[in-house]
Amino acid sequence: MDLLLSINWTALLVLAIALLLFKVLNYIAYKVNWTLVILSSLVMGAVLGILFSSKDNASLIWLELIGKIYVNIITALVAPVVLVSVISGFISLNNKEKMKSIGLKSVFWLLLSAAAAIALSMFFGIVTGIGKSGGAVFSDISSVTDSTLSSYEGMKTSFDQVLLSLFPANVIGDMASNNVTAIIIIAIAVAVSYVGVASEEGEEKVKGFRDLIEAVKKIIYRILAYVIDLTPYAVLCLVAGSAGKLFSDRTALIQLVLLVALIYFVSFLHTYGFNTILLKFYAKVSPVRFFQKIFDAQAVAFTTQSSVGSLPVTIEGLTKKVGVDEEVANFTAPLGTTIGMPGCTCIWPVLLVLFYVNAAGLDWGVGEYVILAFMTLVLSLGGAGVPGIGVVSAVALFSAMNLPVAAVVLLMPINNISDMARTLVNVTTANVAAAVVARGTDLLDDEIFLTEKQGNK
After folding, report:
1. Residue 167 belongs to what H/E stretch?
2. Pick from 71, 72, 173, 285: CA 20 to 30 A from residue 196's CA?
3. Distance of alpha carbon 355 from the chain centroid
4. 324 by DSSP, 3-state: which?
5. Contact, 18 vs 236, CB < 8 A?
6. Which residue from 71, 65, 72 is spatially nearest to 11, judged by alpha carbons?
7. pLDDT 10s digits, 266-279
8. How far is CA 296 from the centre of its chain?
9. How far is the C-alpha of 230 from the C-alpha of 296, rounded, in Å?
10. Do the Cβ atoms of 415 and 390 come closer than 8 Å?
């Protein structure tokens, strides 16, 4: 009897309902557009999460577990996908000058997007005066314990550490930790060496290596296709967990609702406003059609809150739906998870700083704002292989601006809910940058882009 009473029957009921909804999703997947399947799973997950919201999400424990398993699986694919794809892409390119062109253009457009995010955040943060009535949020700033403060201050990253983290230290270790920049550098070194040997000693000397890479790539992409087919079910579970947490923590969110709203507003403005300009005038494609084609990657980003974890879906969508050649998609998209990342390293920390500055009544002049913009752009280079980059970026920027790190601790209740929009910006920016670079290097296939087929089914 005690055993029966100890079972969380509500959680089992929610799991049973979710399994029934899985059947519904599976049925409609063969009837409607794939985008509508993802949207349906988003709605189902949100409704389920709201209806069964509970303390610590106890009623959604099994759905959260399923969502975490999906995130783990797709994250595990990141290192092999990036490594094999970059090597394969550059080997097929077989042109060192083209490699250099793709690299420089990628960095330029990613940093330009970061600069735009900083400008938008500062403009709307200053114009709205966000935080001017938020003094109560920091009324207990002195109560932040030394142990908590120490753990946050331990996240500080100096500029030399930022640069150091961009380069490989251990091939196996960097792959295990998904240090994407290091993996890209390793892959480029292999590809450049391959091209050098092939040109000096003949293609037959390294043909076996090329065939091996292509075979491994086919196998990895087949695994990826299976995982992508599971996306609607994972989205349902992940959204349910997020919705449940949202409605179980009303007090903290009400205090900071204006800040959350501004983060979402700036994030969506950058995603669908600034990027529309780049797509229209530089990638020379229809922004509406483009956003339809990358919707899978955006949905995964929004629900998993992981730019790196979204990479496999991003690369698949860019090559199969948008028409970006593999050498660009396999380089620019992964680079976009380490350089720029406007949502987590620009919009989020800048608005937190402005919220605190206004709440504390600090009298900042033009000089302080210029320094804020410059430091944010520098720190946006430091996302390589660092988990929880949003928290790290906020701590680093507060430290650089000589503001109390304890303020970041008190703003953490909104971290998860705002991370959805921030990750959406990051992944969209990586997709857009890849399209722009592809157009600039004549590696964008308009025939693929103009096809109507959207889904994986």
Report:
1. none
2. 173
3. 24
4. strand
5. yes
6. 65
7. 999 999 999 999 99
8. 13
9. 12
10. yes
